[in-house]
Design a protein that fits this description.
Blueprint: H1 4-9, E1 18-19, H2 30-47, H3 51-54, H4 60-69, E2 79-81, H5 85-98, E3 105-109, H6 114-127, E4 130-134, H7 139-142, E5 147-153, H8 165-174, E6 178-182, H9 194-197, E7 201-204, E8 219-222, H10 266-277, H11 284-305, E9 310-311, E10 323-327, H12 331-340, E11 343-344, E12 346-348, E13 352-356, H13 364-380
Helix pairs in contact: 2-10, 4-10, 5-6, 11-13
């Protein structure tokens, strides 16, 4: 059994705070500060450029990727780190398109994160393809014989709705299409099984449930059957077969290494590596059970105590990720009042109160406090203070 009391102690959680925004930015692992300081003092400071070899900076994208692989149902040497999630989306979708010549349709849904849709739309325009966007419930019926790529985020960032990865991947394969899954709201929150679902490509960020810190690098995975055939449009120096030969002609590295682009963010990877230490000994089935326990308790509590909000997430936990969204016409102001009272979630336009439940550090006390505080804020109308209506740049 996973000791979630021990994993909670592994994080710096400010006193007096119920932090329910780990689906946006995870808190700092206690070990991260010392790990980064040690990297800077013992590696960058003393080794200088020698750190690329002596400290293993050059291979970090793969060694850290191997640690994430276990958490997403992937195998060794199948995941590589680097760049941002948008870049990894671009790489995965462009590579998938090139593996399906003659097909020009990319299918996604209206619950996808806008950035993924922006990337796919820009790519489609550049290569003469078409991006089709349908309602989440209509995805399966929209998978037709002309489809090249199905690009979906497994868990909807706004509602927490969870797609059936295995079923939709199987449906895409029936018509000869490939799948690209965004795991931004899955990795570190759910028992993801990419190989079991027979997915083709997957990408994700590491600053949410994986707690790698603001701006932490993204990851990309390719199923082994595609790894030596995938040809991304974005061809970078670090993805070359022999980068230090300085060949003017691009020759892709073997396997997942070809998905490297630029110089890896070594300091950020050091922080992420420390964050991944927390996962040693964590069972993904226990993680999922804990997630369901927390979200079910929150839904039951707010349903009983907060009649002024409406549930905006699936009621069935099998159809839900590790977050719960509620709707209120003044959601922004309500959330600011909650934050002022020490319960931190976030707001998503136009009217969504979003609460992320990170099993490694959230517990039932956080749930109880969040329910009680939300009920009080709604009951006494304290959310209507003018200060809570002034919108900040980041919501």
């Amino acid at each position: 059994m996973t000791d979630f009391a021990a994993t909670r102690r592994a994080f710096h959680l400010p006193q007096g705070i119920a932090y329910l925004d780990g689906n946006s930015l995870g808190p700092m692992p206690v070990a991260a500060r010392d790990r980064v300081a040690r990297m800077m003092a013992e590696e960058w400071s003393e080794m200088l450029i020698g750190g690329w070899n002596k400290a293993g900076w050059y291979v970090q994208p793969r060694t850290v990727g191997d640690r994430i692989a276990r958490l997403i149902g992937a195998g060794p040497e199948q995941v590589v780190m680097g760049d941002t999630l948008s870049i990894k989306v671009f790489q995965a979708v462009s590579a998938a398109l090139r593996l399906r010549p003659g097909r020009r349709v990319i299918l996604s849904d209206s619950g996808n994160f806008p950035s993924d849709l922006y990337v796919a739309d820009g790519l489609a325009r550049a290569v003469g393809a078409e991006l089709r966007v349908v309602a989440p419930d209509d995805v399966a019926s929209a998978i037709t014989d002309n489809l090249a790529v199905l690009m979906l985020t497994e868990v909807d960032y706004r509602t927490g709705r969870r797609h059936d990865m295995a079923a939709l991947t199987a449906r895409a394969h029936e018509v000869g299409a490939l799948t690209v899954w965004d795991l931004a709201h899955s990795a570190g929150a759910l028992d993801v099984d990419l190989l079991g679902a027979d997915a083709d490509f997957a990408v994700g960020c590491t600053y949410k449930y994986l707690n790698g810190g603001p701006g932490a690098p993204a990851f990309i995975w390719i199923h082994p059957r595609h790894a030596d055939a995938a040809q991304p449009i974005l061809q970078g120096w670090m993805g070359h077969d022999a980068p230090f030969a300085f060949d003017l002609d691009y020759r892709p590295a073997a396997g997942i290494e070809r998905m490297r682009v630029g110089t890896p963010p070594v300091i950020a990877l050091a922080a992420l590596d420390a964050a991944l230490d927390v996962w040693d000994g964590v069972s993904l089935s226990d993680l999922r059970a804990r997630s369901v326990q927390l979200t079910e308790a929150f839904i039951a509590g707010t349903g009983a105590a907060c009649p002024d909000v409406a549930l905006n997430s699936p009621r069935d936990p099998a159809l839900r990720g590790s977050q719960v969204s509620l709707r209120h016409p003044q959601a922004y102001a309500v959330m600011q009042a909650l934050i002022a009272a020490g319960v931190i979630g976030d707001f998503r336009a136009p009217d969504v109160l979003r609460f992320g439940f990170a099993p490694l550090f959230n517990d039932l006390d956080d749930v109880e406090r969040a329910v009680e505080t939300l009920a009080r804020v709604l009951r006494d109308g304290s959310w209507n203070d003018e200060a809570f209506h002034r919108m900040s740049a980041v919501t």
